């Protein structure tokens, strides 16, 4: 049970990190194309 909980916590942590960095990257990419 302990190993499963640790693995699930790691997967959730990695998923949250990927979502955060992809959101920041999308914001920077969208903001860089506003040169009008």
UniProtKB/TrEMBL annotation:
The keyword Membrane applies. It comes from the Bacteria. Keywords: Membrane, Transmembrane, Transmembrane helix. The chain crosses the membrane at residues 6-29. The keyword Membrane applies. This is Cytochrome c oxidase subunit CcoM. The lineage of its organism: Bacteria, Pseudomonadati, Pseudomonadota, Gammaproteobacteria, Pseudomonadales.
